[in-house]
Automatic annotation (TrEMBL):
Name of the featured protein: Ribonuclease HII
Domain RNase H type-2: 10-199
Binding positions (a divalent metal cation): D16, E17, D108
Enzyme category, top tier: hydrolase
Keyword Transcription belongs to the record: no
Keyword Metal-binding assigned: yes
Gene name in the database record: rnhB
GO cellular component: cytoplasm; ribonuclease H2 complex
EC number(s) given by UniProt: 3.1.26.4
GO biological process: DNA replication, removal of RNA primer; mismatch repair
Length: 199
């Protein structure tokens, strides 16, 4: 069972993002405040769960959370401000939407910028240590997966329903063959050097 709180303050929010290493689609963040008495033995880092469990847990988190927010930052903005800044901006936008306002923020990873006057702590592998960060990782992942499944209908040749925009061999082969779409991040290295040389 993951730890319930880092700060011991009742309004502690956990935040995390999904899709940072993708070649296509948005980076998606979530922020969650869970009630003090919240318990769940299954919630964990979203990468440790299968899609079925994540989708079931998404519903539980949405129903039981004190409050939550999920935000996408899209490709054009990622290309403009870079992926790290886009990830932090997405987390900030989520926190801004929380009501009540959190008293403390715990962040998955080691990079964050101060959000107003609210104290925060960066926790490496926090999504496997604290319930609220794990809950945020599940919301970010499931909402982003839903987005990628929707845009798959528009461009099925890239198989985003399956790869969710990550740099799989199949995704890179499709980029090599068909070029890029409006959903691709133009600032990312979309093809490895050896493929670019053969174009």
């Amino acid at each position: 069972m993951l730890a319930k709180s880092f700060s011991k303050l009742p309004l502690e929010c956990g935040t995390d993002e999904a899709g940072r290493g993708c070649l296509a689609g948005p980076v998606t963040a979530a922020a969650v405040i869970l009630p003090k008495n919240f318990r769940n033995k299954i919630i964990n880092d979203s990468k440790q769960l299968n899609a079925l469990s994540r989708n079931k847990l998404q519903k539980i988190i949405r129903e039981k959370a004190v409050c939550y927010s999920v935000q996408h930052i899209y490709m054009e903005e990622i290309d403009e401000i870079n992926i790290l800044n886009a990830s932090i901006r997405a987390m900030h936008k989520c926190i801004e939407n929380l009501n009540p306002v959190p008293e403390f923020i715990i962040v998955d990873g080691n990079r964050f910028k101060n959000y107003k006057e609210v104290p925060h702590e960066c926790i490496i592998k926090g999504d496997g240590k604290f319930l609220s960060i794990a809950a945020a990782s599940i919301l970010a992942k499931t909402y982003r997966d839903e987005f990628m499944t929707r845009i798959h209908e528009e461009y099925p040749i890239y198989n985003w329903k399956q790869n969710k925009g990550y740099p799989t061999i199949e995704h890179r082969e499709a980029i090599k063959k068909y070029g890029v779409t409006k959903y691709h991040r133009k600032s990312f290295k979309l093809l490895p050097e050896q493929l670019e040389l053969s174009l």
